[in-house]
Amino acid sequence: MIELRNVAFGYTERPLCEGIDLTLRRGEIALIRGRSGCGKTSLLRLLSRFHLPSRGNLSLDGRPYGEFPCEELRTRVVYIHQSPVMENRLPVLENLLLPFSFGIHKDKTRPEEQELEGLFAAFHLPPEVLRREAAKLSVGEKQRVAIIRAHLLQPEFMLLDEPLANLDDESASAIREWIARQSLANLGLVMASHQPVAGLPRESVRVLEMGEGRLRERRD
Amino acid sequence: MSAVIDIGWTQLGLCLLFILTAGGASIALRLGLQRDLLWGTVRSFAQLFMLGLVLKYVFHIKLWWPVLLIFWCMLAFAVQIIHGRVKEKSVRYLDTTFLSMFLSFTLITMIINGMIVQVRPWYEPRYFLPLGGMVIGNSMNAIAIALERLFGELRRSKDLVEMRLTLGATYREAAADITRGAVKAGMIPSINAMMGVGMVFIPGMMTGQILAGADVITAVKYQIMVMLMLVGSTSVGSVLVVLLSLRRCFTRDGRLRL
């Protein structure tokens, strides 16, 4: 569980958003909506500790963020950039296995190719993409591969920044289907989007509106 | 061996023709280097004559503290020059640069003076200062190149480094390839110099010794020692400065400062 208490953040003395009291749980899908530049990305970066609050506290399972080694925190709360970054010269398979070369994941079992192919099928990606050079992936393919890469680390929360922006229909529907399934899994999803996200089950998505320096929960 | 032929003041003045040639080219091609050429020439004359005076005095008195004082001044100037060249504002690296240069200098000159040339006393200025000057000069270049590469690549690959951090990498893991590239960039010039020495150019120290009447083979041995010593000092300097400064490029909670 991630808790934010009286959090404010921004880049100047005047906060971009303030007074945030929010609890995010595993198995929950939270959608943060608001116009471009209102602070959605900054909030996701705050949750993954790439940005610090100017006021207030963040905690994960009751423990303040500052007490976690940042590698551990970022493994439990994974942030996926709006334009996912890959090691472009490496094949997709090596990109997926890259985190397992980091000390914090060394003891985790590396996924078998069969498991990866299963995941690829769930994201409507043909298995041959595994061997393709990452530079040759389309934006939609990159977005899906980035989600799979994060998923392999078995995080507790995944932070998706505009996951459906600029995607072709196939990529968007594959990601939408996956998101919808997460309400049954034990993963907490926090998404930022400046547009309404169609095709998600309304009952399982919590909508948070960001604007005029505040974050408000929409209850309709 | 014949004595060294002294250069007369008039003859030395004639060398200014080279500067006039360069200045002419700068004016003709509108390179805007005239000011730098003039200032560089004035500084060369002033700095080298000042050094000559100081060395004359230091060689005479044979005390350890003026030798070390000069060494500290050289070190401080070198660090200042690196600072002027690298121009990175977001990261503090003056102290890491100083420490890297100090350690690489101390280690290499201790080995050279104590074990190889076996100078007694260890601070004998005739050996300590010229050899130290070469170590500092070359380490200075290597460190400046390594730092420029480190900061430049971290800025260029900011997204890639951050992506690795999001996946649980430590700052060292996230910047491992950039660290290697920066250390390598610092080390390569002195390795390349070993390839060309004696074939493409006759190095300054060897030329100086031969002109001063030393035996050619002795000059060769000194030069080999210098080449190897410079590889050692640039390696130690580059590794230390990159590893120490890399930490400064990240905050305690694993965010890139650049």
Structure description:
The complex is a heterodimer of chains A (220) and B (258). By secondary structure, chain A is of the alpha/beta class. Chain A has one domain (2-218): P-loop containing nucleotide triphosphate hydrolases (Rossmann fold). Helix content of chain A is 26%, strand content 25%. Chain A has helices at residues 40-47, 70-76, 92-97, 113-122, 139-151, 169-182, and strands spanning 2-9, 17-24, 29-33, 55-60, 63-64, 77-80, 157-161, 188-193, 205-211, 214-218. In chain A, the strands form two sheets. Chain A has a six-stranded mixed sheet with strand order 6-7-8-3-9-10, with helices on both faces. Chain A has a four-stranded antiparallel sheet with strand order 2-1-4-5, covered by helices on one side. The longest helix of chain A is centred in the last third of the chain and has 14 residues, at 169-182. The relative contact order of chain A is 0.20. The mean pLDDT of chain A is 90. Chain B is mainly α. Chain B has two domains: 1-61, no CATH class; 62-248, no CATH class. In chain B, helix 5 runs antiparallel to helix 6, helix 6 crosses helix 9 (176-196) and helix 6 (125-156) runs parallel beside helix 11. Chain B starts with 8 loop residues before the first helix and ends in a 10-residue tail after the last helix. Chains A and B meet through helix 2 and strand 6 of A and helix 7 of B.
Layout of helices and strands, plus pairs?
The complex is a heterodimer of chains A (220) and B (258).
Chain A: E1 2-9, E2 17-24, E3 29-33, H1 40-47, E4 55-60, E5 63-64, H2 70-76, E6 77-80, H3 92-97, H4 113-122, H5 139-151, E7 157-161, H6 169-182, E8 188-193, E9 205-211, E10 214-218
Parallel strand pairs in A: 3-8, 3-9, 6-7, 7-8
Antiparallel strand pairs in A: 1-2, 1-4, 4-5, 9-10
Chain B: H1 9-14, H2 16-28, H3 34-61, H4 64-86, H5 94-116, H6 125-156, H7 158-166, H8 171-174, H9 176-196, H10 204-211, H11 216-248
Helix pairs in contact in B: 2-3, 4-5, 4-6, 5-6, 5-11, 6-9, 6-11, 9-11, 10-11
